[in-house]
Amino acid sequence: MSACATSSSSATVNHDYYDEFQLPVRGKNSGPSRIAATSHQKGSSAGTVQRKRIELGAHLLVLNSEDELDYISQVIDAGERYWIGLVERTQEGHWTWVDGSDYKSTPLFWDKGQPDDWHVGVSGEDCGQLHEGPHRRRKLWNDADCNLTYNYICEAKGK
Question: Does pTM top 0.90 for this prediction?
Answer without folding.
Answer: no
